[in-house]
Design brief:
Layout: H1 2-15, H2 33-47, H3 54-64, H4 70-82, H5 88-93, H6 95-105, H7 111-127, H8 136-147, H9 152-166, H10 177-190, H11 194-211, H12 219-230, H13 238-260, H14 264-273
Helix pairs in contact: 1-2, 2-4, 3-4, 4-7, 6-7, 7-9, 8-9, 9-11, 10-11, 11-13, 12-13, 13-14
Length: 275
C-alpha cells in the first residue's frame, strides 16, 4: 500500500531524531531508536520503489536541515545517507537539491551533525557516481574543513567520504593535491584513533591513485610516513599496515612514471626507495 509506505517512512524519519534513552549503554546488543530507524529506512529504500520513499526523505531533509535542534539536523542527514544505495537513481536527478545542504552541514556547530553530513557525503560519493564527481570544485574544499576536525569521529567520516569521492577522480584532483596531501599527512601524524588512521590511509591511497605521476614530488614526505605504518607491530594495526603498503606501492608507481618521463630527481628517489 503506497499510502502506508509513506506513513512508515515519515514515522521512521522522525524516529531518526530520537536520542538514546537515558539508561542506554554503548555496548548494548539492542541499538538505540535512531539506529533502528536508519536500518529500517535502508531496507525500505532497497526493496520499495523510490517514488514511495525518496520524496518523503527529501522533504524531511530540507525541513530538518534547517531545524534549531541538532538531533533533528543529525537525523535528517543520517536518513539521507541510508537511502542513497536504494534510491540512487532518484537522488542523481535531485543531486543539486541536496548536495548544498550536505556541504553546508559540514560546517555545523554540532560535531554529531558534521559527522552525519560527512557520512551522507560518503554514501553519496559511493552510490551517485559518476554524477557527483562533476561537483568536485565544491566537495573537496568543503571536506578540507572537516579533515582536521577536533572530533575524531568526524575526522573518520570525512576521510571515508574523501576516499569514496577521490576513487573516481582523475586529473581534476591536481589543483587540490597540495592541500589534500598536507591535510592527510596531518591526520596521520596527529590522529589518536586507529579507525581515523585507517580511513586516512584509504583516502590517501585514492588521492595518490588519482594523482598518478604528479604524486612523485611528495614521495619524500609520504614514503617515510607510510613505512612507519607498514612496519607497525601493534596488535590492532593489521589494516593500517595493509593500507600503507598499498599506498606506498602507488607512490612508487607514480615515481616510476615520472622517471620514465626523464625526470632525473624522480629516478634518483626511485633508486633510493627500491635498491
Amino acid at each position: 500500500d503506497k499510502a502506508l509506505i509513506k506513513e512508515v517512512v515519515a514515522a521512521l524519519c522522525n524516529m531518526c531524531c530520537e536520542p538514546p534513552p537515558d539508561d542506554f549503554e554503548a555496548d548494548s546488543s539492542t541499538p538505540p531508536p535512531g539506529s533502528m530507524a536508519t536500518q529500517a529506512l535502508d531496507t525500505l529504500a532497497c526493496h520499495c520503489a523510490a517514488q514511495h520513499v525518496y520524496p518523503q526523505v527529501l522533504v524531511f531533509v530540507k525541513q530538518g536541515s534547517g531545524s534549531g535542534d541538532a538531533l533533528v539536523r543529525k537525523g535528517a542527514f543520517n536518513a539521507l545517507a541510508v537511502v542513497c544505495e536504494g534510491n540512487a537513481e532518484s537522488m542523481r536527478r535531485r543531486l543539486k537539491d541536496v548536495l548544498p545542504l550536505v556541504l553546508a552541514a559540514l560546517a555545523d556547530a554540532s560535531g554529531e551533525v558534521r559527522g552525519a553530513a560527512a557520512f551522507a557525503l560518503g554514501q553519496m560519493s559511493e552510490h551517485l557516481q559518476p554524477d557527483i564527481v562533476d561537483h568536485y570544485a565544491r566537495v573537496l574544499p568543503a571536506l578540507f574543513g572537516v579533515m582536521l576536525d577536533s572530533d575524531g569521529s568526524v575526522q573518520e567520516r570525512a576521510c571515508y567520504a574523501l576516499d569514496a569521492f577521490c576513487e573516481s577522480l582523475d586529473e581534476e584532483i591536481l589543483p587540490y593535491l597540495p592541500v589534500l596531501v598536507e591535510k592527510l599527512v596531518g591526520v596521520l601524524q596527529n590522529a589518536r584513533k586507529r579507525e581515523v588512521q585507517d580511513m586516512a590511509l584509504g583516502a590517501l591511497s585514492s588521492t595518490v591513485a588519482a594523482a598518478g605521476a604528479a604524486v612523485a614530488v611528495y614521495s619524500s614526505t609520504l614514503l617515510p610516513l607510510l613505512s612507519h605504518f607498514a612496519s607497525s607491530g601493534a596488535a590492532d594495526a593489521l589494516q593500517a599496515r595493509c593500507k600503507a603498503i598499498e599506498c606506498a606501492g602507488l607512490v612508487l608507481q607514480g615515481l616510476a612514471r615520472r622517471a620514465q618521463q626523464g625526470d632525473a630527481e624522480a629516478t634518483g628517489q626511485l633508486q633510493a626507495a627500491v635498491p
